[in-house]
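for the recovery benchmark. tokens below, seq after
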């Protein structure tokens, strides 16, 4: 995670970003810190990446890389405003733990567009494209990580990253909003995950799918109360955290957390 000390919205690279509305960076840091301590309180180790002035979107740490089984597939950002973030993440993996790092040739925004289900089909990667990550990066990720990658086309600009439309609930099951995907991608998801928890447009607009789950606890933002009910009904424990400021940049819980899979 990376604290939003330098958080602003002074460029707009997704439909949620409104440069005319000022953000409250102090409040953003306060809310972010509650997310950090919530994860810690649930027994998770949280590493903190130093924020860099001039990189306001660094708080969305999920975009910096994607790791599976000790291998890190580095990010390459679509927009020049975020390009320098990739190096900060690369440096992190060089200094914390032991990782094999693979630098990318193709544009990809890390866990924003990649999800991993270790127990689905022996280990399956889901990958989104349409707005940020290039389909060529899906093939590149498969080469680097040695797991099958299923490409899913996103069709709604409001849900421009896979993690705004789909989340792993545990090692084998997902929740998603079908309308964010092309009709063919919807059929693929229905085939792979017949027991998925289906979300609706209101859930997705509340960033209810932008969640982090440890297989039992599902951390999601407070606005997504209907989504909390759905995950509870499916047997998980919703853990709501208030994250209103981060929504101004077009992200929520999942965007703020890069999961490490050593
Ligand atoms: N403002 C950021 C962008 O548009 C938000 C990134 C959200 N991150 C995510 N994992 N969906 O790039």
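predicted aa per position
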């Amino acid at each position: 995670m990376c604290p939003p000390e330098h958080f602003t919205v002074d460029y707009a690279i997704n439909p949620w970003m409104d440069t005319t509305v000022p953000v409250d960076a102090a409040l953003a840091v306060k809310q972010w810190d509650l997310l950090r301590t919530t994860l810690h309180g649930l027994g998770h180790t949280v590493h903190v990446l130093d924020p860099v002035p001039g990189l306001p979107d660094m708080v969305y740490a999920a975009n910096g890389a994607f790791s599976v089984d000790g291998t890190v597939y580095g990010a390459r950002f679509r927009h020049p405003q975020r390009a320098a973030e990739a190096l900060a993440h690369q440096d992190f993996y060089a200094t914390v733990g032991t990782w094999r790092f693979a630098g990318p040739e193709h544009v990809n925004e890390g866990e924003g567009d990649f999800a991993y289900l270790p127990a689905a089909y022996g280990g399956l990667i889901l990958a989104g494209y349409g707005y940020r990550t290039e389909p060529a990066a899906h093939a590149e990720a498969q080469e680097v990580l040695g797991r099958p990658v299923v490409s899913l086309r996103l069709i709604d600009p409001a849900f421009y990253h896979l993690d705004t439309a789909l989340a792993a609930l545990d090692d084998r099951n997902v929740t998603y909003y079908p309308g964010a995907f092309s009709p063919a991608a919807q059929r693929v998801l229905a085939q792979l995950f017949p027991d998925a928890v289906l979300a609706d447009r209101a859930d997705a607009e509340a960033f209810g799918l932008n969640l982090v789950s440890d297989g039992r606890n599902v951390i999601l933002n407070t606005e997504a109360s209907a989504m909390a009910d759905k995950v509870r009904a499916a047997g998980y424990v919703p853990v709501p955290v208030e994250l209103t400021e981060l929504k101004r940049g077009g992200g929520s819980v999942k965007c703020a957390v890069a999961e490490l899979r050593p």
